[in-house]
Specification:
By secondary structure, the protein is an alpha+beta fold. 29% of the residues lie in helices and 20% in strands. It has one domain (2-121). It has a five-stranded antiparallel sheet, with helices on one face. Strand 3 and strand 4 (65-70) form a beta hairpin.
Length: 135
């Protein structure tokens, strides 16, 4: 089981990196946490037209998939503005389109956290591990 977890963690790292690369987010602005509850946080350099004074982040977790939110001034949780959809692990290009659409001030995704479709998350994450070691 530990080998399976390690492969899934590597897959999460590569998957999040693919999304970050597509959004041109520098490595220092990316955080992913494999355990106990898998998640990722990407701090975007861009701002939203309606929230020009707030930092924007894209977040992922295994329960709701990808979402976009703005930081609060008090350090509380993000104010979530949109969620991508029911697929917990959409293709990185789909995430990039979702985020860029929102950054242009257009609507995308949904307002409420989705109930994601069940899937074998470990197997899907493992598919993002390159066959040749890159780390």
């Amino acid at each position: 089981m530990e080998v399976v977890e390690e492969v899934a963690e590597q897959g999460l790292r590569h998957y999040v990196r693919a999304v970050a690369d597509g959004l041109e987010v520098r490595p220092g602005a990316v955080c992913h946490v494999p355990r106990p509850r898998a998640g990722a946080y990407l701090a975007l350099p861009a701002r939203l037209p309606d929230f020009a004074g707030r930092e924007v982040a894209v977040v992922w977790d295994a329960h709701h998939g990808w979402g976009l939110g703005v930081e609060t001034s008090s350090g509380e949780d993000l104010i979530m503005l949109a969620y991508l959809g029911e697929d917990v692990l959409p293709e990185p290009d789909e995430v990039v389109v979702f985020v860029r659409t929102l950054l242009r001030g257009q609507r995308s995704g949904q307002l409420k956290p989705p109930i994601v479709r069940p899937c074998d998350l470990r197997a899907r994450l493992a598919s993002y591990v390159p066959s040749e070691p890159t780390d």
